[in-house]
Amino acid sequence: MADSSGMPSGFDYEFVMELDDEYACPICHLAMRMPVLTKCGHRFCKECLEEANKSRQNCPLDQEELGPQHVFEDKATERKILSLKVKCPNKGCEWQGELRSAKSHVDECPLTIIPCSYGTFGCDFKDQRKSLIEHVIVTHLAFTVEKLTELLQENEHLKKEIQKVNRDYADIAAQLSSMNTMAQEGNRLRQRLSYTWKVNDFGQQLQNAKNQNRHVRLYCDPFCTHKNGYRLIIELHPNGNGEGLGTHVSVYLIIMRGEYDAILTWPFPHKIKFMLLDQKPDQAQRKNVDFTCISHTGNQDFFKRPSNDYNSGIGCPCFISHEDLTKESYVIDGKIFLRLELKQAS
């Protein structure tokens, strides 16, 4: 009987009535499985034709060119083939029935040869389904008792382990409470080191820059990482800058001079991550775009304490291409959401 995991082929059953040639695949010479009809009037098994056309897309019978658009499912022929009567392939079984029911019968036939259910434990015995129960009882009863004994011993060991865990519970609960307090403090810190910029007129600014072939810069309002923290501003180029000019959106972070710079750590110690947020309603389907850059990696001038009003910007000239910008829901009603996340660099 044909195995769908092997070479593509039709149904390898013995038919009650001799199989009509019109239902036989010209390639595998078996009853067609999922028959298809070509534009030149020939029928094949779907997988047989696909296999034959891997090297060249021509009809195997008359060599006429065959593209995917020239091959059609033949449901009428499939229904006729599946209605043909076949015999059970197991010797000694008198079952006869429609081809569509053959696999279900074989899966339940007492005469089907199947492997022992203890195969995962090294038993390679195979026999008819009706005989396998006796084999399991006779051969594997002692094995089952041995495994059950091992499970009982393991269960006793687990009980002792659970008792130990219960004894340590009070200490663990105290540690967990302390960790929760630290986590809450960490969450507050992360909230202070995250900034989301809603750019309402991004779509119009990008279109204007493209139509007028000019360089457009957009800036968010200056903000601080936290109270008495670093003063920052985001610079956005809808039509790109540098190597991204005309093809990409560019984004940069600029460190500005702030009134608390004298008591802050320099150079700027945070890892910088830009993220363009996907605005799909289903959060599971969102595909945000992000870019990360780290301080102390040869860009000291960008991260040093500003001596002027602001430093040069650090970021990505090719943050996202204009082509990719349209593939997901990054721009809705002309607006985008750009998030900056800062994390202490290791």
Automatic annotation (TrEMBL):
A cellular-component GO term for this protein: cytoplasm
Pfam families in the cross-refs: TRAF-mep_MATH, zf-C3HC4_2, zf-TRAF
Domain (MATH): residue spans on this chain: 192-342
UniProt feature coiled coil, ranges: 141-175
Keyword vocabulary terms for this entry: Coiled coil, Cytoplasm, Metal-binding, Repeat, Zinc, Zinc-finger
An MF annotation (GO) of this entry: tumor necrosis factor receptor binding
Subcellular locations according to the entry: Cytoplasm
GO process annotations (BP): regulation of apoptotic process; regulation of canonical NF-kappaB signal transduction; signal transduction
Name of this chain's protein: TNF receptor-associated factor
Native source organism of the sequence: Exaiptasia diaphana
